Amino acid sequence: xxxxxxxxxxxxxxxxxxxxxxxxxxxxxxxxxxxxxxxxxxxxxxxxxxxxxxxxxxxxxxxxxxxxxxxxxxxxxxxxxxxxxxxxxxxxxxxxxxxxxxxxxxxxxxxxxxxxxxxxxxxxxxxxxxxxxxxxxxxxxxxxxxxxxxxxxxxxxxxxxxxxxxxxxxxxxxxxxxxxxxxxxxxxxxxxxxxxxxxxxxxxxxxxxxxxxxxxxxxxxxxxxxxxxxxxxxxxxxxxxxxxxxxxxxxxxxxxxxxxxxxxxxxxxxxxxxxxxxxxxxxxxxxxxxxxxxxxxxxxxxxxxxxxxxxxxxxxxxxxxxxxxxxxxxxxxxxxxxxxxxxxxxxxxxx
Length: 351
Ligand code: ADP
Ligand code: MG
Known about the structure:
Blueprint: H1 2-9, H2 13-21, E1 34-40, E2 43-49, H3 55-76, H4 88-93, E3 100-101, H5 104-119, H6 129-144, H7 154-161, E4 169-172, E5 177-180, H8 193-207, E6 213-217, E7 220-224, E8 233-238, E9 247-253, E10 257-262, E11 267-270, E12 273-276, E13 290-297, H9 300-311, H10 315-324, E14 329-334, E15 339-341, E16 349-350
Antiparallel strand pairs: 1-2, 2-6, 3-5, 4-5, 6-7, 7-10, 8-9, 9-16, 10-13, 11-12, 13-14, 14-15
Helix pairs in contact: 3-8, 8-9
Bound molecules: adenosine-5'-diphosphate and magnesium ion.
């Protein structure tokens, strides 16, 4: 049931499928030659091939993608531990204790997350775990029993926020260890883990010359190359007012990622008002500026992290930040339906 709900609200999937099935005005429609799906990161993922691979080749390539996603899913999981590995759940459980030996892939990822914390002026903070888990629990309770849905108090949010300073994350690269310096600190990589894993899978495919693959990892789209004729894919950005049926924009994309953060994606309702899952570090409440925001850039991890960070920033600050990072375009959808976008998107829109 969870998967079905997530499936309906995924960012760009609908648009991509519309492109593939001819619901939008794509000039040339080619059915994918291969299609596979699997469930990691609490969501449904798809691999499509337009590469002209044999069935065996497609099967082995999509199995490799699944393996990569599975590995990262296990490393990033904060709710379960797996035998033989220390993952983020282990790091959180042992917070305040000794340094913990972890896989070097986890070290690289955490360094990447620290870098993005700095780049986004702290708006994307993987140490926001204690605050996010409060919202997670209230949301879960409110979805299970909507009549008794409640909001956290400012006092409990504020008290949790005392354990979210990024410096609490200690990384020893040489010894491949990680430590949280406060027993109440915890990591939550919901903002970028899926995108980072998607990028690793995409890079793997690219090194295998797999031109013409599309990954849709829980709505996080990563296009590897182009269609065989050199054209791109029409991808829809959902209309936040009617996300399961209509699109705010359709964009023709090649060799790029497209990641949306939206207030409609995961939320619960208290006294008629919706409270979603992207939390502003300053107010500790859901960020309210936009209905949705979509980032277009090649690196899917960057797209994912920026989608969350920019969602918490004003349009003006977001525009400045975007200008500092080469190869990034953004489309903002405001609550009144107004759409603004960076200049690089101007020639990519299609009807
Ligand atoms: P989704 O992956 O659900 O499509 P996002 O990429 O925007 O959406 O990530 C939202 C998730 O990121 C939340 O569920 C939460 O786990 C985490 N998160 C929310 N706000 C922040 C924040 N300011 N910094 C870091 N992580 C956040
Ligand atoms: Mg994100």
